[in-house]
Fold Beta-barrel assembly machine subunit BamD.
Amino acid sequence: MKKTIVVVLAVITLASCSEYQKALKSEDTGVKYSMADSLYDAGKYRKSLKLWEQIVPAYRGKPQAERIMFLYADAQYQEENYYLAGYQFDRFVSAYPDSDKAEEAEYKAAVSYAELSPNYQLDQSETEKGLTQLQQFITSYPESPYAEDANERIKELSIKMQKKSFEIAKGWHKIMQYPAAISSLDDFLSDYPGSPFREAAFFYKLDSQYQYGSKSINILVKPRLEEAIEMYETLINYFPEGDYRAQADEIKADIDSILENYS
């Protein structure tokens, strides 16, 4: 019985492959359309793509073009070909802004660009593009069923951008370029007031000023460390029980000790 089932399945598979190959080689766009449609519905997106690619130009300007363009873009999306999916969905929205599928297409275009976002250590051009596209989608479709997911993706990409900016600023601290660190951390705090890295940014700004002041020439030690005290007070005002409180208190104690010599 099992052998019979295997044989039957093999025959069906071979027949299916044969029909697919015939459709690929056929000059009849209707045959290609029908086969591509069936393959797409069956979730065989890669195979359907080869057929869509052959017939998209032939249907340009015809009534079927709208549907074909959408399915072609979506097959790219389902195959995680995000560069092509984003591009094709953008083309679809541009060509058919009033389509029933325009909302889904705009959402999937935005997701495609978001999916291209790399590790925070790399160039974030794709992340910025994904953020822009997702924000535009929310603006266009605030009540969309896709809005919740779009907002979550916006948060994820925004945090990645924040981490990139924060790590660059912290990098100046690491190589002991303290004025550059302070300036970069100021910019970060201004650009991302609600960032999850806000407390760390305040701390590294404090530590940078402390290191900068304590290593300054004698006449500049006091004013620079007094600035550090102000930064300490800002940090504990915002984060009185924060993760960096103990380290900040140690810095403050050392500053007080140093300043005793400048009374």
